[in-house]
Amino acid sequence: MDDVIAATGTSASGVYRYFSGKEELIDAATDEALELLRGFFIRLLGAQPTPSPTDTITTLVGELANRTTESDYDLSKIAMLAWSEALRRPEVATRTGAFYWDVHGHLAELTAWWRTAGHLPADANPDDVATMLVTLMPGLIVNQHLVDPVEADQLTSGLAALGAAVTTG
Question: Which site among 8, 34, 62, 90 is 20 to 30 Å from 73 CA-CA?
Fold first, then answer.
């Protein structure tokens, strides 16, 4: 809380007027970070023409890079904090899990459009592709902060090679 008070330039009583403590502040920041990510996927779904898988991954990687280098505060760090809070607080786990299922649904819808547009095989399962994409997102954030940022072309190239090598059945 001391860091928040210092960063905002307000008094302790000013911050505590809006947040009763650290957990309430984390909850509010988590909700904001999740809403921004949800908005990102809704914008993708509304784009015409529908962005290709490569365009989507490039946009996602670019959005993460912008959030971490050009914003007043980095919401991807808040996402990492929310994950750790979710392990400790069941109510955060429930909200965060519901959010990811919502994003999964948006991605499954986008994947179905990719299949219709011929970007994916006709027998591609939208839920499977959405699961793979949701699974990639935390890894992108972890790499951004703890290893090295992943470039979109590196990610799409690796996914293409893996896709060519992996068979089901």
Answer: 90
In the chain, the N- to C-terminal Cα span, in Å, equals 52
Question: What local confidence, expressed as pLDDT, does residue 85 receive?
Answer: 82
Cβ-proximal residues to 107 (8 Å cutoff; 6+ apart), any chain: 41, 129, 130, 133, 134
**Diameter of the chain by CA atoms?**
61
Give CA–CA dist 50/43, Å, rounded. 10
Q: What per-residue confidence (pLDDT) applies to 115?
A: 93
User: pLDDT per residue over 24-79, tens digit each?
Assistant: 777 777 777 667 777 777 887 788 888 888 988 888 888 888 776 755 667 777 77
CA distance 61 to 152: 6
106 neighbors 116 (Cβ within 8 angstroms): no
Residue 21: its H or E element: none
Please name each of the domains of the chain with its CATH number.
22-165 (1.10.357.10)
Burial class (CB within 10 angstroms; exposed 0-12, middle 13-18, buried 19+) of 141: buried
Exposed/middle/buried for 127, CB within 10 Å: 0-12, 13-18, 19+? middle
Q: What whole-number distance in Å separates Cα of residue 13 and Cα of residue 99? A: 32
Positive or negative, the Cα torsion across 89, 90, 93, 94? negative
